[in-house]
Amino acid sequence: MSKQPIPVLLDGDPGHDDAMAWMLAAASPALKILSVTSCSGNQTIEKTTNNALRVMALLGINAPMAMGGTPMLGKEMPVPAVHGASGLDGADLPEPKQAPVDPPAVELMAQVIRSSPDPVTIVPTGPLTNVAALFAAHPELKSRVERISLMGGGIAHGNWTPAAEFNILVDPEAARLVFQSGIPILMAGLDVTEKALVCPEDFGRIRAVGNPVAVTVADWLEFFYQFHKTMDYPGAPIHDAVAVAALVKPEILTVREMYVDVEVSGDYCMGCTVGDWHGTSGHKPNTRVLLDIDREAFVDLLVEAVKTYGEVR
Ligand code: RIB
Ligand code: CA
């Protein structure tokens, strides 16, 4: 008897790696996408919303989509140097096939969670603005969320400051609320995502699959690698796809349980995800921190996923 698919809510700031994470999610029979919501991060909320709709059209994701919010206290922090002026440069994308639904992201997420017969998994791949707002407005829904599989943070280091990873830094107050929510967290932080590299020699494997999604993913990889090449990465770190890989192929990942909290102030450490590696805080672990990945198996997973878009589905 095959297992029931995991009901998931995708929330992100596409963003090349968000788009590839969603490609992996939509290709996997192990997941059922209940909703897609946008957040402000890689680009402004307007641009990430438009990108989300275009990616859904490309992938054929049949789910409601809602526009999310901007950071709780801070301002938007678009990063055109990484993802381009549109937030998803490098490939021609189809026009949206749907408009965002009327209720904003938080209310769509709440509706979807309430109507799901089974507890859901939330997969945030951008700043945690919407997820924090969801539980602030509807704390009673926490019991209907099995886990949050997020890309964000880093125990050993940051990438936007020495201490902070981008998603957490954009909205540290939201991140603290999510890590303190009591919901089990599966954290794909930089410790693992900077090892989730798709290298130039892999780009050809994906492009050779030949269907429109495969060609688009290869174009995204080429663009996304340009910034990372200047940072001496040997390949493109597909950060966000690790939060999905952890659900569909957990055996390729190494995990360590620990208590994690978020620094929300400080000259050097604002946005740092502080991991209690040796259990000295007195807090019980709240997070399964992903630390390592079988990179070859990860690339194979992406190649197999793009192949599904050429088959009758
Ligand atoms: O630090 C990497 C994260 O920031 C990824 O989610 C990427 O899409 C950007 O949002
Ligand atoms: Ca992202």
Provide the list of bound ligands, each named once: alpha-D-ribofuranose, calcium ion
Tell me the span between the first and last alpha carbons. Answer: 21 Å
Number of helical regions: 12
Classification by helices and strands:
alpha/beta
Instruction: Give the strand line-up of the largest sheet.
Output: 3-2-1-4-5-6-11-9-10
Q: Characterize the biggest β-sheet.
A: 9 strands, mixed
- Beta-strand content: 15-25%
Radius of gyration (Å): 18 Å
The proportion of residues forming helix, as a percent range, comes to 25-40%
Q: Spell out the helices and strands N to C.
A: EHEHEHHEHEHHEHEHHEHEEEH
How many distinct beta strands?
11
Molecular shape: globular
Low-confidence stretches: none
What's the mean pLDDT score? 97
Please name the defining characteristics of this protein:
single chain, 313 residues, alpha/beta, nine-stranded mixed sheet, 12 helices, binds alpha-D-ribofuranose, binds calcium ion
Summarize the structure.
The protein has helices spanning 16-27, 45-59, 80-83, 105-115, 129-137, 166-170, 172-179, 190-193, 200-207, 212-230, 239-248, 295-307; strands at residues 6-12, 31-38, 65-66, 120-124, 145-151, 185-188, 197-198, 236-237, 253-262, 273-276, 287-293.
